[in-house]
Write a structure and sequence with these properties.
This protein has 8 helices and 7 strands, in the order H-H-E-H-E-H-E-H-H-E-E-H-E-H-E. The chain is an alpha/beta fold. The chain has one domain (2-197). The chain has a 5-stranded mixed beta sheet. The longest helix has 14 residues, at 11-24. The protein is globular.
């Protein structure tokens, strides 16, 4: 099966392929370039816009297929008020104007403040954007990319990339996120029938 041609390769080989696919995609390339110039502290473009782009590339689907938005994390614990985050969100809305997909910006230093009300359980107080990524409901989805100070792409992938290239959505049981894992898995299978979902 050709879409699985990178499955099982060493991490470094998968990393090169992963980043090459992202940079070849006009939408992701533009989102990353604009995120870089927005200059937020500890920023990361994360999740669906990344792994969905890889799945689209490997299954011959068009750019942007199945992607609802671009998730942009940043980490700023200097001001944990809603107003401070909202100011960044409004600044980003202008900065990303004209991009084909909406960009959802969230300060990961604030997640523990609203998470219990939204999801009905506590959430740890994260110390960085990367730490937040490692708490995603599915290990497969735990990917983030940013430009470093030298203008090189920096990849955050706490569980590696093999699940992405194997088209397999694997649960991350660090928190009780079963419902999110199952909901996202079912939606992914509708768009990419090649996917398998490991039960919680």
């Amino acid at each position: 099966m050709d879409h699985l041609r990178y499955s099982g390769l060493p991490f470094e080989a998968q990393r090169v392929v992963f980043l090459d696919i992202l940079l070849a995609d006009a939408l992701v390339r533009e989102a990353l370039a604009r995120a870089h110039t927005l200059d937020l502290p500890d920023w990361l473009v994360v999740s669906g816009a990344l792994y969905n782009t890889v799945w689209n590339h490997l299954t011959g689907k068009p750019s942007g297929y199945g992607i609802r938005d671009v998730d942009l994390f940043y980490f700023d614990d200097a001001d944990l008020s809603y107003e401070a985050e909202d100011a960044v969100i409004r600044r980003a809305a202008v900065h990303f104007e004209g991009l084909p997909l909406p960009v959802e910006v969230r300060n990961q230093a604030r997640v523990h403040l609203w998470y219990p009300q939204k999801f009905g359980q506590p959430c740890p107080r994260y110390l960085s954007s990367s730490e937040s990524v490692s708490h995603f409901a599915s290990k497969t989805h735990a990917v983030g990319v940013r430009y470093d100070a030298d203008g090189q792409l920096d990849l955050v992938a706490p569980f590696g990339l093999d699940d992405v290239f194997s088209f397999c959505i694997v649960p991350n049981r660090v928190m009780d996120n079963q419902r999110t894992h199952e909901t996202k898995g079912a939606r992914a299978r509708e768009n990419w029938p090649e996917i398998s979902v490991v039960p919680w």
